[in-house]
UniProtKB/TrEMBL annotation:
Presence of the UniProt keyword DNA repair in the record: no
Pathway(s): Amino-acid biosynthesis; L-valine biosynthesis; L-valine from pyruvate: step 1/4; Amino-acid biosynthesis; L-isoleucine biosynthesis; L-isoleucine from 2-oxobutanoate: step 1/4
Catalytic activity as recorded in UniProt: 2 pyruvate + H(+) = (2S)-2-acetolactate + CO2
Organism: Anaerostipes amylophilus
GO molecular function annotation: acetolactate synthase activity
Start and end residues of each Thiamine pyrophosphate enzyme TPP-binding domain: 386-553
Name listed for the protein in its UniProt record: Acetolactate synthase
EC number in record: 2.2.1.6
Length: 581
């Protein structure tokens, strides 16, 4: 058995785990780790321009590849800049291992320069966090960190690394096995509960699958599609579950929830059996809890025991891996006749035809035209979104099938996620088309990461839907606050003497000029005003193979995301167009 410093061993452990990329930003407490990374070429260091960009890039890398994303930041502000990204990954069950530098153990608690209790800060927003206080614990804790991050319900793990501990010599042996007392994730669904669930499905007159992001994380796309087709039972999804089955499939009826489509929301409240897989029933999909699926029996399949009956009381709880559960259900369904649900499907089709998801074309560009063009032009893209109206429009209209992917911050709703996530996705998938859809507000949260995309020579197409507002908040102000656009107009200057009255000719120019901003970083910048300019802009972006292209789409200023559930309303209590509120 040889000896290594903790800094040397960390790099060896990354190599043993098969880590190919580490997203890191240097500082005094991690400079020795960076020195060890510099000495080898098996693990590549990716240097973003801000720690929040760093962790969102690692998140996008993890979601797009299925691997564990790895982060490295220094102590104090470096560590605290990871906090939003840790919470983002935690809500959406993304496997991350985050290493943070820490001051020497004898200085902890003394208000030392760049000292922060990052374990205390992140304890409630991560799957597991710990300070490595002894060199002899380092090897085991790194192995456990990767195991905890990727197993059970995936999530972020943080190891805080004091500088003196990492300088000590210790064993160079990387553990082969993990045995954590009290952490034994259960992935095997209970066979008796599966049989009970299947009997209920065959007895139901109006069964409905509700699929969330957990089923996608489990990699159950193929099995879920086969199960749906074998049973002939319709499917709706949360926005995180969108893409679990092809969005152009005749048995798929769209997203449910606050901005879900009419047919999907009606189906949840009209079904007599709801089979929920991999969703925690958060408020954005349930609306008023007392009215959610009130006439239905509920089967809930989830790998997280704590998620069962947490928000919605269920009739059949089933803890286990979604892919394994769906595979077991399929093995039974393949030996039975399809469900007799023709009347139920006819009713759902009537709802779909009665109030389809549409957007009226106007003088200016409308967002659906941009998303439709993405559907048309790109073959198998990875599409990331920011958060806000741009996110909702993308989740409504983006077509997902085959290898197409969509990455979005669904649980925390983190503005600034889209661009760095696209960078991580592109780094993890060389040669794949990567498209980022962002709003003008969210894009500016991490716009410095244009530099990272340029330095990494990533041919990402970045679509900024610019309506001049923080659009989602403005939408609420439009509908429920008498158009009092407090703090949401991004063109408003101190010298403005009027409140926005819809006459945009009075407004000062938008800041920044996104085309000039792109060019200042060495990226390509394009501005689009008309529908017929969209595809040529995409063609120009595709022709640039050595870096990103930013396309600013000047869209209708006051376009709304519709439908929309009324505040405190049932998910069937929908506003379909302006004036109904």
């Amino acid at each position: 058995m040889g000896k290594m410093t903790g800094n040397e061993f960390l790099v060896k452990a990354l190599q043993e785990e098969g880590v190919e990329k580490i997203f890191g930003y240097p500082g005094a407490c991690v400079i020795d780790i960076f020195d060890e990374i510099y000495k080898q070429d098996q693990v590549e260091l990716i240097l973003p321009r801000h720690e929040q960009g760093l962790i969102h890039a690692a998140d996008g890398y993890a979601r797009a590849t299925g691997k564990v994303g790895v982060c490295l930041a220094t102590s104090g502000p470096g560590a605290t800049n990871l906090v939003t990204g840790i919470a983002t990954a935690n809500y959406d069950s993304v496997p991350l291992v985050c290493f943070t530098g820490q001051v020497a153990t004898n200085l902890i608690g003394n208000d030392t320069f760049q000292e922060i209790d990052i374990v205390g800060v992140t304890r409630n927003i991560a799957k597991f966090v710990i300070v490595v206080r002894k060199r002899e614990d380092l090897n085991r804790l790194i192995k456990e960190a990767f195991y905890i991050a990727r197993t059970g319900k995936p999530g972020p793990v943080l190891l805080d690394l004091p500088k003196d501990v990492m300088a000590e010599l210790g064993s160079d042996e990387y553990p082969e096995k993990v045995n954590i007392r009290g952490y034994k994730p259960n992935t095997k669904p209970h066979h008796g509960q599966i049989l009970r669930a299947m009997n209920m499905i065959y007895d139901a007159k109006r069964p409905l699958f509700l699929i969330g992001g957990g089923a996608k994380i489990a990699g159950a796309q193929e099995e879920m599609c086969k199960l749906m087709e074998t049973l002939k039972v319709p499917v709706v999804t949360t926005i995180m579950g969108r893409g679990i089955v092809p969005t152009n499939h005749e048995l798929y009826y769209g997203n449910i929830g606050m901005h879900g489509n009419y047919a999907a929301n009606q189906a949840v409240n009209g079904c007599d059996l709801l089979i929920s897989i991999g969703t925690r029933f958060n408020d954005r999909i349930t609306g008023k809890l007392g009215t959610f699926a009130s006439d239905a029996k509920i089967i809930h399949i989830d790998i997280d025991t704590a998620a069962i009956s947490k928000n919605v009381t269920v009739d059949v709880p089933l803890v286990g891996d979604a892919k394994e559960a769906i595979a077991l259900m399929l093995s039974i369904a393949e030996n039975e006749e399809p469900c007799k649900v023709d009347e139920w499907l006819s009713r759902m089709n009537e709802w779909h035809e009665q109030k389809p998801l549409v957007m009226e074309e106007k003088e200016k560009l409308v967002p659906k035209q941009v998303i439709d063009a993405i559907n048309e032009y790109f073959d198998e893209p990875i599409v990331t979104t920011d958060v806000g109206q741009n996110q909702m429009w993308t989740t409504q209209f983006l077509q997902l099938y085959g290898r197409r992917q969509m990455l979005t911050s669904g649980g925390l709703g983190t503005m600034g996620y889209g661009l760095p996530a696209a960078i991580g996705a592109a780094i993890g998938n060389p040669g794949r088309e990567v498209v980022c859809v962002s709003g003008d507000g969210g894009f500016q949260m991490n716009s410095q990461e244009i530099a990272t995309a340029v330095i990494q020579e990533l041919p990402i197409t970045i679509c900024i839907l610019n309506n001049g507002y923080l659009g989602m908040v403005r939408q609420w102000q439009d509908l429920f606050y008498d158009k009092a656009y407090a703090g949401t107009c991004l063109r408003r200057r101190k010298s403005c003497e009027h409140h926005c009255d819809g006459d945009f000719s009075k407004c000062p120019p938008y800041t920044p000029d996104f085309v000039k901003l792109a060019e200042s970083y060495g990226a390509q910048g394009i501005r689009v005003f008309k529908k017929e300019e969209i595809i040529p802009a995409f063609e120009k972006a595709k022709a640039k193979t050595d870096g990103p292209t930013i396309i600013e789409f000047i869209i209708e200023n006051e376009e709304l995301v519709m439908p929309m559930v009324k505040p405190n309303g049932s998910i069937t209590d929908l506003i379909m167009e302006r004036g109904e509120e």
